[in-house]
Amino acid sequence: MRGDQQRIAEPIQPWVGRSRECAVLAEAFADARASRARCVVVRGPSGVGKSRLLSEFRRREQLRACAVLQVRCPDTPRPPRYDAVRRIFEPLELGADDVADSAVPALFPDLPVARNSSDYATLSALHSLAANLMATRPLVLVVDDAHHCDAASLRWLDFLLRRAADLPLLVVLGYRCDELDGPARATMSDLVAQRTTTVIEPAPLSRDDVAEVVTATLPVVPESDFVDTCARTSGGNPALLHRLIDALVKAGVRPDETGELSAEQIGRGVLAASVRSRLAGLPRRIARVAAAVAVLGPGAGVETVAAMAGVTRWQVTEALEVLRRRDVVAESGVDFAHDGMRAAVLDVVPVSEEDRLRAARILNDTGRPAIEVAEHLVQLAELNQPWMAGVLRDAAALTEQQGAPEIAVRYLRRVLDVETSEPQRIRVRADLGRVLAQLDPYAALPILRKLLDQVTDPTVYVSFVLNFAMTAVTAQRHPEAVRALGEVLAMLTLKARHDASAALRELCLSVESMLLIIGSGEKSTFGLVQDRIAERPLLSGGTPAERRMLAATAFVQSLRGEPSAQVVQHARTALNFQASDADPWTERCALFALHLADATEDLLPAAQRAVELVESMGARWDYSYSLSCYARVLLHFGDVRGAAEEARTAADICAQTVCADSTAAQYTAWASALVELGDVDQADEVLGRIERDWFDEATLEWHYFLHARARVHWIRGEFTAAAEVLLGCGRSMTGAGITNPVFVPWRTDAAILLAGLGRRSEAADLLDQDEEAAQRWGTARALGRHLMTRGVVAEDPVRAVGSLTEAVEVLSGSPAWLDEARAHFRLGEVLLRTEDERGARKHLRRCIDLATLCGAKPIADHARTLVVTAGGRVGQPLRSPVDLLTGSERRVATMAAAGASNRAIAEALFVTLRTVETHLTNAYRKLRVSKRADLAAALGGARTRRQHRDDEVEAEPLAGRP
């Protein structure tokens, strides 16, 4: 017939999610054209796209050269014999004289001759008729809805394929596997078993496929969450998806966040209608089994479903098979085909109060998890049996551990409906208040406050006061928290005079440490906290309360600017705990101190762990606050992009909580990062969102706010306004006793602005104060910033260059990339004024490198402008932190990453062991890693550094360049 060149198949017109199926059909068609008969069976549940696939195949251009006979079998209760065969050959307009006598019974059943022919003769005659058609061109037979086909027609197709191995024949069948039954099912099984047959079972559309369909169908580009809703609701079924989209368009639903809820509701109705049609006509027991599976959940077994549905085990198995063929339940197990199907079944098959109670009993008696039982109990109007309280409390504890406090609150509220013991009710209300505080601290406070009047046990009372205090802080009620903690601490101190037990001492320390931490959050109480810490002897950190006390001490001392080495020691001891003793308050305070002290080797891993700890607890506001603290850490170390991303996430989460109107940390962190990115307009808008009462009393957020506001003014060129805001910030900090020079560097920033405004005596006074504070705190960042400011303010160019050169050297030994970039910029600026253009270009390019890696656009842009002014051109900026390494540092780091010891590296490079340690420490800092094991990954992802970069740039002529 045709040569092998016909084997090369051109792809069928593709559409979303069906490229694999199209490829299978194209391959089968190529085989048929090469006289290798093939059969393709397309089967699956309703709506999966079988008919569309066959329709697209029939439109294929190459089929015009073939004899194409097609039929869509009608849905008739008992189709007559050879009904599909007659429909297939009907377009040929054959008469009885055009076919063999044996074919007449099939094609013309009303003629008398039909009674005298055997089935085999009829099948053979029909085969000869098809073979005659294939004598001149390939034959393609397409049978859609083959589940309605009569058994005789299917038997002929099977007969034809078995005798057409070397004929140009392609048979394409599409059928719903849930509808095929009786003799037709057996014949179809024979067809599928043939070696020439390939079975295609179109899968549900993937999430990306759904996104493509929704995007192509709707007039507006949909948001990601809206697409997720459509994918979840439709289960990837194309027919359901298109019905859903049509319904959404008719309802005018926008494909964004506002339309998600409407899409859920409309989609549920579409899915319910689909389920209703799939269950129509089935025996009632099958619907009861579907409802039982829906009520009991995916963990139920066949026996449990049988007990719930009131049928036998055998009847459950039979019903599941029927539901499986109709794509209601999954291919295996006792569960639904997709998540939305469960809700749809419950919409279609009503579930009564008695059914819910029976389901709860069955699940409880079979030992299913408490959460599964509780889900039924909370839907009952009345809870009146003692066992229910225990189940609900267990379920609440489990959901809280899983990070779902809103569900735990729901369970605990229902416990109060059934629990009658007053001591137990107090415990339940305590749990309710504690868990509710994670979601709505304003609603939790009255519950916890009322409990304080009901408890008589001193130990229990103290734990309730601690819960109340922490909730009051989240609700921005610091004075209430401090007052309550002060009262209970006085009570415990009095008791300790007669009881010297370790347990009471630990309890006293726990309360006192919380009092110090909470009290340090407001300026009005910060002085009292300082006095109490000054009077208290240092602790070893052997217990959780001692570690929290050390963390509080480190926090307060860091704000006061005490020597950083001492502060770091306290903070590290506080963080030396086991996972079971993890405490967010201890971690936050200790991390804040390490953050100001630039203790990078401890800080970044601990900060990430702190965020993960709070995230696992499921408290949204606490999680957003921890994220904002982490953003501050990233910003402090120069990762401006990372800081902006984390802070924005924190602000978005915070905006969804009830505390959104009374918080500031998330917004000040975001605004501070936006300023360094150069987006001052958005930073200004974010700062404007803060509407917290008594905001100016906060020790941290208020001063962060003022500094960010001053930076906005500064970048906009409003220098006087920026200086006044910074001076106001300084008065507030000094009045509260906060003197750390790097917490909010108001003195150095204000000194630069004042000098530029001609107020040099004021700038000099601020620098004198800052020098004392920087020397006392003692970090490279503090000293380097002070030296940089000295250089900027100095009128004598020689002194300016000297101070700025020293500042660059000092800051290069710290993780303060942004400050180092600023120092290079200022030095380049001064060198340009002294006409040292080559030196200026060197430092300005270094500034561009650092600022670009950090994401600090304003600094990088200003430096680029000055490079051009200095007669140079702007080269390619650094793209990796590895480019920051000196040659020696990179050699040492590479050898260490390969496993060489410090001593082996020293011997190989002919340097001292101390030199190796210095280079390795610098490499850790620049690569932002904390241990040797991380070096290989950090070095491996970098691009090759250009050698002698500055010299190469200098060697290129500027002539002819723009």
From TrEMBL:
According to the lineage, what is the superkingdom? Bacteria
| Nucleotide-binding keyword on record | yes
Q: Which UniProt keywords apply?
A: ATP-binding, Nucleotide-binding
Map out region (Disordered) in residue numbers.
939-962
Where in the numbering of this chain does the HTH luxR-type domain appear?
878-943
Gene3D superfamilies hit by this protein: P-loop containing nucleotide triphosphate hydrolases, Tetratricopeptide repeat domain, Winged helix-like DNA-binding domain superfamily/Winged helix DNA-binding domain
A Pfam family found in this protein is AAA_16
Residues spanning the membrane: none
What the entry lists under PANTHER family is as follows:
TESTICULAR SOLUBLE ADENYLYL CYCLASE (PTHR16305), TRANSCRIPTIONAL ACTIVATOR DOMAIN (PTHR16305:SF35)
Designated name of the protein: AAA family ATPase
This protein's species is: Saccharopolyspora ipomoeae
